[in-house]
Every structure is written in structure tokens, then in C-alpha cells.
């Protein structure tokens, strides 16, 4: 199973700060260091945005197989709802096509960073344990409108999965 996890940008900023501090000349001013960091962060954000857009485009660009998609969406919603280790109400949408799905989740920021990490780990375990599909999990820093946004992109090869007796099974 293929799995990718894209961490939030905040830890990357800390790493970039440390890297810039360790690899720059001692003659650089704080303003110059800040400018280097800002450039690095902007490049990272642009790359992450392009990557996310590419995954979303891949899902949206796929023709919908109504039978497979409806069954997969139903199973994902039911599986999430019955797993008591997952944050209630965090799964906001599930959009499946013919072999790919886009799941959108919302983790609320009123929890501590440790609690947020634990929720992300629970979600990762849920998707890894319950799906035979490859997946990419992206936690975004969010904005004022969507803090703590999280997306999971499933890639299920239709040659490996089939709908039988109302269930999505491996062939």
C-alpha cells in the first residue's frame, strides 16, 4: 500500500529557521535572514499548493462510476462513523469517482497541538487499516476560514477492487 503524509507547514518553518541559522554567513543581518526564510517558506507553500491542486485535479478529472463511487463513499462514511477513536464530526465530505476519492476533514484548533497530532494519527490509522487503496494524507495549516483542514486522497486501482453483493472487495 502506498501512503504519503504531508505535515503542516509550521514544523517546516522551524526546520527552515534552523537550517538558515546553521548555513548562513555570520555577516548577514536579521533582515537578510528573514528575507531568505520568507523566500524559502513561499517556495514551500507554492510547491505544497501545486501538489494539492494536482491531487484534487486528478480526482475531479476522473469520470464517475456511479455504482463504485456510491458504494465506496457509503463505506467510508460508515467506517468513519463507527470508529470511536476518530474525532466526531471531522469528516466533512467524501467524493469518489471511478478509482479515486477525495476526503476532506476539519480538525478544530481549540485542541492542543498534541491532541491535534493524536487525532491525525487516529485518522491515519483508520485509513491505513480499513482501505486497501494507496493514499496521500495532507494536513494544511488552513486559513481563518478553515483552520486545521486535512485532506486524504485515495487511489484505488479498479482492477484490484470490485463491488460485490453491496460491498467494495478486492479482486
Question: Any chance you could write out the topology, listing elements then pairs?
Answer:
Elements: E1 3-6, H1 9-23, H2 30-60, H3 66-82, E2 91-96, E3 100-106, H4 113-130, E4 134-139, E5 149-155, E6 161-164, E7 167-170
Parallel strand pairs: 1-4
Antiparallel strand pairs: 2-3, 3-5, 4-5, 6-7
Helix pairs in contact: 1-2
Task: Give a quick precis of the structure.
The chain has 171 residues and is of the alpha+beta class.
Quick tags:
22% strand, two-stranded antiparallel sheet, alpha+beta, single chain
Kindly describe this structure.
With 171 residues, the chain is of the alpha+beta class. The protein folds into 2 domains: 8-58, no CATH class; 63-170, no CATH class. Helices cover 47% and strands 22% of the residues. It has a 5-stranded mixed beta sheet with strand order 1-4-5-3-2, with helices on both faces. Strands 6-7 form a two-stranded antiparallel sheet. Helix 1 (9-23) packs antiparallel against helix 2 (30-60). The chain starts with a strand and ends with a strand. The model is unreliable at 158-166 (pLDDT under 50).
